[in-house]
Each structure stands twice: as C-alpha cells, then as structure tokens.
Write a structure and sequence with these properties.
Strand content: 25-35%
Structural class: alpha/beta
Order of helices and strands: EHEHEEHEEHEH
Helix content: 25-40%
C-alpha cells in the first residue's frame, strides 16, 4: 500500500492535512527556496511545491508526496515572512488598505509511477486601514513572524482584513485542501 507523506516543516499545513482524517507522515524537504532570476511569485510557488514533493518522493519509495509552497505578492513583487517584530510592522504599514495575492502552489507526486499533479491556487486579500496602535496590538498578541504578510487569517489576523477572495480559503493558510482532494481522488484515494 502506498504511504501518504506531507513534504513540509509547517505546523499549519500539518494541522490542515489532519482535517482530512488521513494517515500520513511528515518529512521536511531540504531544498533551496531562493527564487530564480525573473521568476514571478506564482512561478516560484509552483516550482518549489514540485521540488519539495519530488525531493522527498525520490528518497522514499512507495509514497504519494504532497509538496506545497506559498509566495505572497504585493504590487507584483514577492513578500516574504517578516521574521521580526520590526519587519512585521513595516509590512503591515505598507499593505494597509491594499490587496495582496497569496500564490499557494501544490503538487502531488506519486513516487511509484512518477506521476506529478500540480497547480497554483490564488487568494486575494485586502488589508483594512490600520492605526499604528492596532498594528502593535495585533503583533504583540499573535506574533505572526513566520507568516508571509505578517498575519494569520486563521487566527486574530482576520481582524486586519477587509476581504478574502478565492476558490479555496484553505489555500491562504498554505495547503489548498479542495485542490488536494481532487488530486488524491485521481490517485485512487477517496476522502469520503
């Protein structure tokens, strides 16, 4: 029997995949995540999701590997994780009142057959206009320094947003579950 693997070190993606009530393992992929020259954020998300799935799948036979990557873009340029309080303040200040696009790449790699399914699910998010005090209050309470865009929509960060638009709200957290269910079904795995 083929074994399902999530190629990710993200605790958020692990929690998301648990929603599908499947047995799976988690193996962190080790790849260079540096964007290529002239690569769009959307292209980066797709390429990295494929590379993550393939890198784990090629090391572990008899697996079906889920690879994902998310790149946020603001005014056409990639927007990374802030990693610090100061950077998060800067991000939230420049994004307030504006729309960000989160490109969530997903890949399902069958290490037995070599079959690859991949796509990118885009989610548009508009941030509310915020005061410096609101930004500070939010960051002190949630500390989303490991999240692109400096906000956790699945938590208190939802209070910073005007809207979320897209086909799969799960994609904003990092794992497009609706797309994944379709991919798994094509590999013979029925969720319900």
């Amino acid at each position: 029997m083929i074994h399902l693997v999530l190629a990710s070190s993200s605790i958020y993606r692990k929690k998301q995949l648990q929603q599908l009530q499947l047995n799976f393992s988690v193996i962190a992929p080790f790849i260079d995540e540096t964007p290529l020259a002239n690569e769009t954020p959307k292209q980066t998300a797709l390429r990295l999701s494929i590379e993550k799935a393939r890198s784990v799948g090629l090391q572990h036979s008899n697996t079906l590997v889920i690879g994902c990557d998310q790149v946020a873009s603001f005014e056409g340029k990639p927007l990374g994780k802030p990693l610090s309080h100061e950077n998060a303040v800067k991000q939230l200040r420049i994004m307030q009142g504006k729309e960000i696009i989160f490109h969530s790449g997903i890949c399902l790699f069958n290490a037995v057959t070599g079959n690859i399914q991949s796509s990118v699910v885009d989610i548009q998010v508009k941030f509310r206009s915020l005061t410096d005090q609101q930004i500070e209050n939010y960051l002190v309470r949630e500390q989303p320094y490991d999240c692109a865009g400096s906000a956790k929509s699945e938590g208190l960060g939802v209070a910073l947003l005007d809207y979320i638009r897209g086909d799969d709200p799960n994609a904003l957290i990092g794992l497009p579950l609706i797309q994944l269910v379709t991919m798994l079904e094509k590999e013979g795995i029925k969720i319900v």
